[in-house]
C-alpha cells in the first residue's frame, strides 16, 4: 500500500470518528419497519463481528460467503470482512439448495453465513471490541454470476479494498453537478454488483435506504416518505413501478436522477418515466460485473438515439467486431468489445470452470453481447449471442421481441426463448404473465399485435401463459433453464 492509499476499514473508522451519530443506513423490512443505523454503530458492530469471524478462522485473503438478504447483518458482514482483509462474496440466497451448493463449491469460503446465521451475527453485539490491525483485502469483493449458461462463476474485483472516491462518484456528474449527500434507495438484492456497489457510495458519504425485497408499491412509498434523491433499477422494476395505479399523482419530485441498467429499456417505458420525472433526470448505462468498460446517456440524449445504451464513458473505448475480428460499419450488428483505462479491471479474475472474456491483441474484451454503433458513436445493445434465436435461418433477438410485446395491454411481463422446431429449427416462443389471469391474451392477439411492430419472422409462433415469469430477486431470468425445461 502506498502512503496515499487508505484501506476501506480505516475509512469506516474515520467516518465513525467524525460522524458517530449520523444516520447513514436505513433498512426497509418486509414488515414495513424502517430502523436506521449510524456510522458509530456500524463501525462498532462490524469490529465485534470481525473478532468473532477471526475466531472462526477468517483471515486476510480468505473468502467470506454471504447468503444473506439485504439487511444490517449483510452490511456488517461485508465491513467485518474488509476489517480482516478478507474478500466478501455475496451469494444468491434465492437459489435451490443443489445450485447453491455448486456455487459454494466454486467459492470454497473459509466461512459461510446464511439465513440461519443471522441470530449468531446478532449475538456478537455482546463481545468486546478487538484491536484490529489495518489491512487490505486483495480483492474488494467477489460477485457470483451464472450467466446465461447456468455455469457457476465468481468474478473477483480487480482492485484491493482501498478507498477510492471514483467508486462513490455519481455517474450523472459526467453531465452536471449532483447535490451531495445523495439519499439513495437500493431496491435490488445486494448479491447483484450494482446494488452491492452502493456500499462504496455510502462510504463516500451518501445515505442509503435499502429494501429487504423489491416491491413496486413499497418503493414508491419510500421515495415519497423519505424524499429519496436517487435510485438504480432494472427495466422490470421500473415497469412495475410505472404500472402502479395512480402513479401519475404520486410525489416523485425529490428524485434528482435515476439510473437504469441490466438491460435496455423498452422505448415505451422510457417515455413513461420521462413523463413522470422528466427525461433529463433519467440516465441509462451499460456495463458488466467484469468491469470491462462503461457507456451511458441521459434520457434527453436517448430521445435523439432511441434504443441506445450510450456513448463510452470514463476512458472506455468501444469496438463492434464481426466473427473474423474485423471492425463493422455503423449500423452493422456484431460482438461488442470494450477497453477501459479508467476502470481498473485488469486484475479481475474468475473462480470456477469458465473461460475468461475473449480479447483482442490490443486488449479489447467481450462477454458476448451483440450490438452496433450508430453514426454518432452511440452504442445500441441488441442481445447476448447465447440468447439469439436462429429461426428459419434468420437471427431473432429475444430482447427486441420482448420490447414489442410488453406494450400489449394484456401483458404484465414477458420472456422470449427459442424452442426446438422441426420446420424452423428454432421457433420464437413467448412466455407471458397476463395482467389478468382470467383474461389472458391469445396467440392470435399476440401475433396480430406483434405484426405491427416486428418483421414477420420475429413474430412469436407459440405463446405460453404462466402465473408469473420466474425472475430472480434481481428481476433476471435464466433463458437456458427455461429452454431446458421445455425440451431444449
Automatic annotation (TrEMBL):
<protein>
    <submittedName>
        <fullName>AMP-binding protein</fullName>
    </submittedName>
</protein>
<dbReference type="Pfam" id="PF13193">
    <property type="entry name" value="AMP-binding_C"/>
</dbReference>
<dbReference type="Pfam" id="PF00501">
    <property type="entry name" value="AMP-binding"/>
</dbReference>
<feature type="domain" description="AMP-dependent synthetase/ligase">
    <location>
        <begin position="16"/>
        <end position="114"/>
    </location>
</feature>
<dbReference type="InterPro" id="IPR050237">
    <property type="entry name" value="ATP-dep_AMP-bd_enzyme"/>
</dbReference>
<dbReference type="InterPro" id="IPR045851">
    <property type="entry name" value="AMP-bd_C_sf"/>
</dbReference>
<dbReference type="InterPro" id="IPR042099">
    <property type="entry name" value="ANL_N_sf"/>
</dbReference>
<dbReference type="InterPro" id="IPR025110">
    <property type="entry name" value="AMP-bd_C"/>
</dbReference>
<feature type="domain" description="AMP-binding enzyme C-terminal">
    <location>
        <begin position="400"/>
        <end position="474"/>
    </location>
</feature>
<dbReference type="InterPro" id="IPR000873">
    <property type="entry name" value="AMP-dep_synth/lig_dom"/>
</dbReference>
<feature type="domain" description="AMP-dependent synthetase/ligase">
    <location>
        <begin position="145"/>
        <end position="340"/>
    </location>
</feature>
<dbReference type="GO" id="GO:0016878">
    <property type="term" value="F:acid-thiol ligase activity"/>
</dbReference>
